[in-house]
Amino acid sequence: MADIRSVCVYAGSSNRVDRKYLDVAARVGRFLARQGCRIVYGGGSTGLMGAMADAALEAGAEVIGVIPDHFYTPELAHTGLTRLEVVPDMHTRKRRMAELADAFIALPGGYGTWEELFEMLTWAQIGLHQKPVGVLNAFGFYDLLLQFVTQAREQHFLYKDHEDLLLARTTIEDLWQALQGYRPRALRKWLTPQDEG
After folding, report:
1. How do strand 83-87 and strand 133-136 relate by DSSP bridges?
2. For residue 135, what are the contacts with CB-CB under 8 A and spacing of at least 6?
3. Which is nearest to 11 in space by CA: 92, 93, 116?
4. CA–CA gap between residue 176 and residue 135 (Å, rounded)
């Protein structure tokens, strides 16, 4: 059983998305606050990032933002967080967020969200951490991505163990249960010509 006291949340920053996604992000913030979790995220005030952070703060959670210097502007940075750490670049941001978290959740988002998600999966695959990694597949947002991961495994680019590193659920309640139930195990770090998938 994973001991999760701090959750890193990756999420989109666009304000132009359908309201239903902002509502989901707010629900995640409130839910994690009720679990007594500290929340770590990218420090933004817009989009799903801002909706999640605002709801978590209103529900009494500790929320820590980690934002690179070039995003530290009045338009983008959240000024009401428990703590906002300003770092020099994106690489430092991702490393710092990973250090502060016991688990990772990706909400709907774009390139930045996906890149952060897959970096944590890659780190898990090669043994740099043993923390659970999940996606909230709200409204089927990640259906095609999950199909692509399965395709990669079927075509022998991934082991089944690697595919299973990505915990995907459609509600935050179910995802939370999956994250808590995660048990690290020894993984093969790369494929060999003899591998059968």
Report:
1. unpaired
2. 105, 106, 117, 142, 145, 146, 166, 167, 168, 175
3. 116
4. 10
Confidence of residue 2 (pLDDT cuts 50, 70, 90): confident
pLDDT tens-place string over residues 69-128 = 999 998 899 999 999 999 999 999 999 999 999 999 999 999 999 999 999 999 999 999
Model confidence over 125-182: pLDDT tens digits? 999 999 999 999 999 999 999 999 999 999 999 999 999 999 999 999 999 999 999 9
Listing DSSP states for 80-99 in one string gives SSSEEEEESSHHHHHHHHHH
Measuring CA to CA, which residue among 81, 25, 20, 73 is closest to residue 49?
A: 25
Q: Which residue has the tokens 């890659």?
A: 122
Q: Give residue limits of the domains in the chain.
A: 6-180
CATH class of 6-180: alpha beta
Which three-class secondary structure state does DSSP give residue 167? strand
DSSP-derived secondary structure for 46-75: SHHHHHHHHHHHHTT--EEEEEEGGG-STT
Distances (CA, A) of 154 to 103, 147, 157, 160: 27, 10, 8, 9
**Residues constituting the chain:** 197
**How many Cα neighbours within 13 Å face the side chain of 24?**
25
